[in-house]
Amino acid sequence: MLPRCDFIRISALTTLGVAGGVRDASADELKTVRVLEVPTDGAKSVLYAEKANLFRKRGIDANIVAVGSGSAIYAAVVGGSADFGSGSLWPVFEAYAHGVPLRIIAPASLYRADRPDGFLLVAKDGPIKTPRDLNGKILGGDSTKDISVMAIRSWLDQHGGDGKSLRSVELKQTEQLAALDAARIDAVLLKPPYLTVALETGKYRELGTPYDAVAPRFALSCWVATADYIAKNPDTVKAFTAGLLEAAKYTNANQAATTDMVAAFSGQDAAILGRGIRSTTAETVTASDFQGPLDFAYKSGVIDQHIDLSGVLASTVVLSRGR
């Protein structure tokens, strides 16, 4: 079990009301599922799905809890204290390569170079003015080999610097901005809502979009469950992922409708978040959306053995043939 302090209950959702649809299942017919999510803008689809009864009409009562890091979420799912969890794609690939029974049941956030939502920030009044100035500096990331850290290293190499010279510090996403503000780190790649909060202060400069070094478009995060849970609860998994997909289509088209719930979930100011860019939730994915970051993991040396992509994807992940 995760320590109680790692959990942030989203009690605000219970007062948000019901948006659209009628409950198709009575309370005693609902199956409760334990859902863990990192408190970022990427949570908006699962939050909306619960608020709008998209899960309930499929027979699910989702108990959604915020946890500060994807690694803690995956540990909870594998350990059996959660049914579904969301986090970065790379740890799932690593887990699968080492025989850990995590499976991807749905994509979550999608990165697109033509609509970037992840920016490398440095202090506006600091000495870092160009990518090359990053040489030898300290980065913050979810882990020392997180995709954001490795993307920055690769991006720096592409822009005349030395990616290997960078040092990295492991920090939860909820801690990274404070570390940058206190000058414990020199740069960090942030996404909404923390990116929005940082830029609102006027204290930071956008140095670039390092995720471009991975691929022009790729799945940045995903939803997972264990192979055992999927085998024993196929209808529940299908219902959960169907609710996520319906929510993704709505939230991508109606970003403003999700601002308050993301603010409540992440503990940020809704007015500030409403003025910033928003993340994109995957509605459809291709094999290359997963293969791109997997190939980058091979190239970066994060995964040292090739894996069969089809083995880590559950049957609920439907791949389209093209974009």
Description:
With 323 residues, the chain is an alpha/beta fold. The chain folds into two domains: 4-111 and 217-320, 3-Layer(aba) Sandwich (D-Maltodextrin-Binding Protein, domain 2), CATH 3.40.190; 119-213, D-Maltodextrin-Binding Protein, domain 2, CATH 3.40.190. The chain contains twelve helices and 16 strands. It has helices at 44-51, 70-79, 89-97, 147-158, 173-181, 194-201, 227-232, 234-253, 259-266, 270-273, 287-300, 309-312; strands spanning 7-9, 31-37, 60-67, 84-88, 102-107, 109-112, 119-123, 138-141, 167-170, 187-190, 204-208, 217-219, 221-226, 280-281, 285-286, 319-320. The strands form four sheets. A six-stranded mixed beta sheet has the order 1-3-2-4-13-5, with helices on both faces. Strand 2, helix 1 and strand 3 (60-67) form a beta-alpha-beta unit. Helix 1 crosses helix 8. The longest helix is centred in the C-terminal third of the chain and has 20 residues, at 234-253. The chain starts with 6 loop residues before the first strand and ends with a strand. Residues 1-23 have low confidence and may be disordered.
